[in-house]
Amino acid sequence: MSAVKENAVIAIENALVTHNDIVPENMVIRTDNGSQYTSKAFRKSILVLGLKLEHIYYNTTEQNGHIESFHKTLKKKYWSNDFQNYQEAELAIKDAFTNYNQNRIHSALQYLTPYEFISKWKLQQQIIDMENNKKMINKSSGLVNAILF
After folding, report:
1. What is the C-alpha to C-alpha distance for residues 73 and 78, in angstroms, rounded to an integer?
2. Looking at residue 97, what is its pLDDT?
């Protein structure tokens, strides 16, 4: 199976649905220069979804180190298997994604799993939002008091 632009767009849409509390305008999608990511259809879809698109430079896989690390893990741990059919391969890849995101700690994420890291990040964002709301309420009540008195 080859990666095509339609599958790439579907994967991004699924990620947005799964993490629906993240604002797309704050997200940057970083890809290599594969034809599925440089196609007009993919670029247009990214714009419609409100995302920013960033391509790594040619032959600089270190710019996309996190996904390259995942691919290495996937190949080492799962590609050595001889799959009897497509469903077996699909299950192995799903297992790899689950393990990589929910069980495996990452040094680049302060030795947390990606799910732990995003949960911590979301909590920090909620705290920041609450503090900003308090500041706005305090400013508003101060303004109201100044107008009334």
Report:
1. 8
2. 84
Q: What is the pLDDT of residues 27-85, one digit of tens each?
A: 788 888 888 888 998 899 888 888 888 888 877 766 677 777 777 878 887 776 688 88
Distance in angstroms (rounded) separating the CA atoms of residues 92 and 88: 6
Q: What is the largest CA-CA distance in the chain?
A: 80
**Cβ–Cβ < 8 Å for 99, 90:** no
Question: Taking a C-beta distance cutoff of 8 angstroms, is the pair 43, 20 a contact?
Answer: no
Where along the chain do its domains lie? Answer: 1-55
Rounded CA-CA distance 19/124 in Å is 16
pTM of the model: 0.54
| Most confident by average pLDDT, 17-21, 22-26, 70-74, 99-103 | 99-103
User: Which pairs with CB-CB distance under 8 Å and at least 24 residues apart come from 13-19?
Assistant: 13/49, 16/49, 19/118
**Nearest CA to 55 among 41, 73, 39?**
39
Q: What does the pLDDT read at residue 111? A: 93
Name residue 54's beta-bridge partners: 30
In the CATH scheme, what is the code of domain 1-55? 3.30.420.10
